[in-house]
């Protein structure tokens, strides 16, 4: 490291994300770790290796299972919202006397029930 400083490189006050040793900037502006012998990129004051870590490959079955679970959760969420809206509209409909408003509420209820019937998952699935 002393040789690097003597040759005009600048030691930065940051550490390599891989080996935790000090990183340097050369006269050309490149930032590197002399211990790992790799270039470093600085993003928002956080140092990252130039080559990202390889992600574990998730097999196809796990991806499909995860997507299926997220899909079910989304449909359950939609069901809950629709049930809440049906409950609100039902309460309003109970006290309503204006035919136009009754028609509007029943149309909304019908649409909510149609959507619920099209959802492929039920809570008990």
Walkthrough of the structure:
The protein is α+β, with helices and mostly antiparallel strands. The chain folds into 2 domains: 48 residues; 59 residues. The protein is built from 3 helices and 5 strands, in the order H-E-E-E-E-E-H-H. It has a 5-stranded antiparallel sheet, with no helix packed on it. Strand 3 and strand 4 form a beta hairpin. Helix 2 packs antiparallel against helix 3. The longest helix has 36 residues. The model has no long low-confidence stretch (mean pLDDT 82).
Keywords:
about 120 residues; alpha+beta; 2 domains; five-stranded antiparallel β-sheet; 5 strands; rod-shaped
Short description:
The protein is an alpha+beta fold. The chain is 49% helix and 18% strand.
